[in-house]
Amino acid sequence: MNILILGGTGRVGSHIVNFALEDNHSVTMLVRTPDNIQINHENLNIIEGNVLNKEDVARAMQGNELVISALNTDGAYTLSESMPLIIEVMKEKGIKRIITIGTAGILQSRVTPELLRYQSSESKRKSTRAAEDHHKTYDLLKESSLDWTIVCPTYLPDGERLGTYRVERDFLPEDGAKISVPDTAEFAYRQIENHEYINVRVGIAY
Fold first, then answer.
1. Cα Rg for the chain, rounded, in angstroms?
2. How many CB atoms lie within 10 A of CB 160?
3. 8 and 70 in contact (C-beta within 8 Å)?
4. pLDDT exceeds 90 at position 110
5. Where is 19: in which H helix or E strand?
6. Cα distances (Å, whole numbers) of residue 122 to 48, 109, 133
């Protein structure tokens, strides 16, 4: 399969790139600084550009069948500002499937189900800026006609790949406290072939 991975140099994204290459998928990465990429693989296509530039996104998406976004909030609003461009180009090129990495903050709250976790007492984070950016991205995907899945990890230490974890639609698994970066990446990568969580936020934790 031909896969475009955005945010492929990040903590979660780099693992997803490795999983895809190990399975002999053709992987395209859109990166601002190609010289920082240490991977040398015949199935890896590196395109220099910025996810906030529609022309760059269109070049990167050419010939791909599926998009995985592991973009992070990076102290700005890259997520919510890039998503309209990503959605627009996907529609123009007839690509339906997108898998993104979100945050547990945009899952429904167990204590106040009409609110998202970051809006309720369930969240312990003082700053809501990152969650708000993820929330805007979630709303954009909901309003699109794409087949989307948002993987929503809680506290995300680097950790080891255990291969066993709990997932739940729209909620964080009860008493879930953490999930490692590689296990989050593994679950997100598996959604390439899995259609169980189309148009769903998926909470993931040990």
1. 16
2. 10
3. yes
4. yes
5. helix 11-22
6. 40, 7, 19
Angle formed at CA 127 by CA 180 and CA 80, multiple of 5 degrees: 75
- pLDDT of 81 reads 95
**Mutual orientation of helices 54-61 and 78-93 as an angle, nearest 10°?**
50
Q: Hunting for tokens 């167990």 — which residue is that? A: 110
- In whole angstroms, what is the distance from residue 95 CA to residue 147 CA? 9
State how far the Cα of 58 lies from the Cα of 101, in Å rounded to an integer: 21
Question: What does the alpha-carbon distance between residue 113 and residue 165 come to, in Å, rounded to a whole number?
Answer: 23
E strands present in 115-199: 147-153, 166-169
pTM score, whole prediction: 0.96
How confident is the prediction for the chain on average, in pLDDT? 95
**pLDDT (0 to 100) of residue 101:** 98
* Domains of the chain: residue spans and CATH: 2-205 (3.40.50.720)
Q: pLDDT at residue 125 above 80?
A: no
- Amino acid, res. 32: R
The Cα–Cα gap between 41 and 157 comes to: 28
- 49-102 confidence digits (pLDDT tens): 999 999 999 999 999 999 999 998 777 789 999 999 999 999 999 999 999 999
Give the closest residue to 154 by CA, choosing from 126, 125, 127.
Answer: 125
Question: What is the rounded distance in angstroms from the CA atom of residue 88 to the CA atom of residue 197?
Answer: 22
pLDDT at 126 over 90: no
User: How far is the C-alpha of 90 from the C-alpha of 78, rounded, in Å?
Assistant: 18
